[in-house]
Amino acid sequence: MNIAFTYNVRHFDPLKNWQKAEEEADFDSPDTIREIKKVLAGLGHHVFLVEADSSAYGKFQKLKSKLDLVFNYAEGIRGQDREAQIPAMLEMLQIPYTGGSPLSYALGLNKVKTKEILSYYQIPTPKWQVFKTGREIISKALKFPLIVKPQGEGSSKGISAKNLVHNKKQLQLVVKKEIAKYNQPALVEEFLDGREFTVAVLGHPAKTLPIIEVKFDELPKGMPKFDHYEAKWIYDNPKFKADPLICPAKISKKLEKKIKESVLKAFEILEMADWARFDIRLDKYGQPNILEANCPPGIIPDPKENSRFPRAAKVAGLNFPKLLQTVITSAAKRYNIKKIL
């Protein structure tokens, strides 16, 4: 097929300048973009590169007559609904693309709206409160410790180890800092100290890949045990030779069933398509709670990078080329693109 591969590329190395790199935490390295393009071409597709910047719409407009499908791996630029930008452009131009609708991408990035929808459908998610100014009175229903997160950021952007707070004074300081820095509301969420998992969903019809448990045993002493920015981008790095992932997770059949049912239901009600990844924590009763949805999910080709989705796919018997082709085939089924079916 003729495929446009659309993406956002990172310009800073987290190990060299993690503060600058955090601004592009959602974006991918030039090596990752080159490798994905190479793999797509190796599958026999003719690939057009379209960076998801302000010139993307014009490029898609010119390519429209040539394209069968867009492989959407873009995060978008600027704004809390930025992941919806590329899908909205493609809807307007009537070009088929991988992944869910503009609405599903906007919801996936907005942690608060995701939690509101999950709660409505009685899918467990940690208790939370939204802070818009930092002057709000904390709800009596919330119990410390709490985690402070920007409402609409991905890849642990804005969630450092210091964002786990233990009292009202810490909470107020971190909340005000987050609101000022990211110019958006802060989500304050109860910290669940149970085991952490991440679950990939793939295909049409959607199926879960083997569940991954994320461990934090190799983090420095005193550093909180959750998937904060430092854990994900600094300590889970090939240079540290750590591997925090266990796949398949060593859990009971009962818990596995609960997690999969919860994730597939969330995937459906958030109207996602082709692929996504969900982060899960167990509460004190062993009940899986969905923390957030990730779409598009990260897919770094190099296995040394411990990218979650490719790891789960590999355990399921899908190497990286087969993973990408499965996403493409899933979208082709939805659009009834006969060239590939």
Compute the number of strand runs: 13
Helical residues, percent: 25-40%
Low-confidence stretches: none
What is the third-level CATH name, the topology of the largest domain? D-amino Acid Aminotransferase, Chain A, domain 1
Report the span from N to C terminus.
11 Å
Contiguous helical run count = 11
CATH hierarchy, class of the largest domain:
Alpha Beta
Written account of the structure:
This protein is an alpha+beta fold and 341 residues long. The protein has three domains: 2-99, Rossmann fold (3-Layer(aba) Sandwich); 127-190, Dna Ligase, domain 1, CATH 3.30.1490; 193-335, D-amino Acid Aminotransferase, Chain A, domain 1 (2-Layer Sandwich). The chain has helices spanning 18-23, 30-42, 56-63, 85-93, 102-109, 111-120, 168-182, 229-235, 253-269, 308-315, 320-335; strands at residues 2-7, 46-51, 69-72, 128-131, 146-150, 164-165, 186-190, 196-202, 207-208, 212-214, 245-246, 275-282, 288-294. Strands 8, 9, 10, 11, 12 and 13 form a six-stranded antiparallel sheet that branches. It has a four-stranded antiparallel sheet with strand order 4-7-5-6, with helices on one face. A three-stranded parallel sheet has the order 2-1-3, with helices on both faces. A hairpin with a 4-residue loop joins strand 8 (196-202) and strand 9. The radius of gyration is 19 Å and the shape is globular. The chain starts with a strand and ends in a 6-residue tail after the last helix. The mean pLDDT is 91.
